[in-house]
């Protein structure tokens, strides 16, 4: 039997098994299968997926995220806050502001320690990418998709697409309680017009600085929160003239609140919690 040490952490209930790859040595070709195993609630630990905290050539630390179906994502907002907390608390970094490498580029994290422990982290997520080829979505239009008609079956919806390093599609609803998470979510996630799949988000506008948000995540299904998705929802809401640029917007997710600003300088700043659940040894064959 083989084993590795893990820490389970969550950001607003979006929970992952974190593995410190400065100390552990998991085989590259087994990462996808290990993510599926640890995420299983019956025979594993139970989680939305697995996140690796890795050495980097260009930053003090690098994050890799695997969804609970074993697919590798390119970014994870809640994961970034937890990686920042872990890196600071475990001495991987000594500064309160530092860069984290992701598969979609570098971001900057700022931790707010109290007695050596971190509970709140702000991440400068960089600029959203809006061009259709950067989402990617296969449509004739080359520039951004904002409130564009989108046919699913016989129903026409209106969508806005945003990449925060990973793909998001936003649908607006009058009442978040009606979000068709398990019906529209999986169909749109795998729609061939999104060649890499997509994270599907439903948003209700409460006020010009307040949104309600629910998500069907690519590769993981319903989760309590999606940090990149909440950032994408704030960007989409500015593009749709529902909220204001450079003004902090409170996003109410199933697991709690995130505070997000799309700054006039271009980047999206996300502030929110990061918590440790437990740590231990995971055994596998
Ligand atoms: N929960 C995450 C996003 C995780 C990756 C996503 N499912 C993808 O495949 O792009 C977040 O907090 O951003």
From TrEMBL:
Task performed by this protein: Catalyzes the stereoinversion of LL-2,6-diaminopimelate (L,L-DAP) to meso-diaminopimelate (meso-DAP), a precursor of L-lysine and an essential component of the bacterial peptidoglycan.
The UniProt record lists the keyword Cytoplasm: yes
Active-site positions on this chain: 76 (proton donor), 76, 226 (proton acceptor)
Species per Swiss-Prot/TrEMBL record: Sutcliffiella tianshenii
Name of the molecule in the record: Diaminopimelate epimerase
Transmembrane stretches, start-end: none
Subunit note: Homodimer.
Binding residue positions for substrate: 14, 67, 77-78, 166, 199, 217-218, 227-228
Family indicated by similarity: Belongs to the diaminopimelate epimerase family.
Pathway stated in the Swiss-Prot or TrEMBL entry: Amino-acid biosynthesis; L-lysine biosynthesis via DAP pathway; DL-2,6-diaminopimelate from LL-2,6-diaminopimelate: step 1/1
Annotated positions for site Could be important to modulate the pK values of the two catalytic cysteine residues: 168, 217
Cellular localisation: Cytoplasm
Record HAMAP family: DAP_epimerase
Alphabetized InterPro entries for the sequence: DAP_epimerase_AS, DAP_epimerase_DapF
Assigned keywords, A-Z: Amino-acid biosynthesis, Cytoplasm, Isomerase, Lysine biosynthesis
E.C. code: 5.1.1.7
SUPFAM superfamilies registered for this protein in UniProt: Diaminopimelate epimerase-like (SSF54506)
Catalysed transformations (reactions): (2S,6S)-2,6-diaminopimelate = meso-2,6-diaminopimelate
A molecular function GO annotation: diaminopimelate epimerase activity
């Amino acid at each position: 039997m083989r084993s590795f040490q893990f820490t389970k952490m969550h950001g607003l209930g979006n929970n992952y098994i974190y593995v410190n790859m400065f100390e552990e040595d998991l085989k590259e070709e087994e990462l996808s299968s290990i993510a599926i195993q640890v995420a299983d609630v019956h025979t594993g630990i139970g989680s939305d997926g697995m996140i690796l905290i890795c050495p980097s050539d260009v930053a003090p630390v690098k994050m890799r995220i695997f969804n609970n179906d074993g697919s590798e994502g390119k970014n994870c907002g809640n994961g970034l806050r937890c990686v920042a907390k872990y890196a600071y608390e475990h001495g991987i970094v000594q500064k309160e502001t530092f860069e984290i490498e992701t598969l979609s580029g570098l971001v900057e994290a700022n931790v707010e320690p109290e007695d050596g422990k971190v509970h709140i982290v702000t991440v400068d997520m960089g600029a959203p990418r809006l061009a259709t080829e950067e989402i990617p979505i296969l449509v004739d239009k080359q520039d951004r998709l904002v409130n564009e008609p989108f046919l699913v079956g016989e129903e026409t919806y209106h969508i806005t697409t945003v990449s925060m390093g990973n793909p998001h599609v936003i649908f607006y609803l009058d009442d978040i309680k009606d979000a068709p998470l398990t019906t529209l979510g999986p169909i749109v996630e795998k729609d061939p017009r999104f060649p890499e799949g997509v994270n599907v988000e439903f948003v209700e506008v409460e006020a010009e600085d307040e949104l309600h948000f629910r998500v069907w995540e690519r590769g993981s299904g319903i989760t309590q929160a999606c940090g990149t998705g909440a950032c994408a929802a704030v960007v989409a809401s500015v593009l749709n003239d529902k909220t204001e640029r450079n003004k902090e917007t409170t996003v109410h997710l199933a697991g709690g609140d995130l505070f997000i600003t799309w700054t006039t300088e271009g980047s999206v700043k996300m502030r929110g919690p990061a918590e440790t659940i437990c740590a231990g040894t995971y055994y596998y064959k």
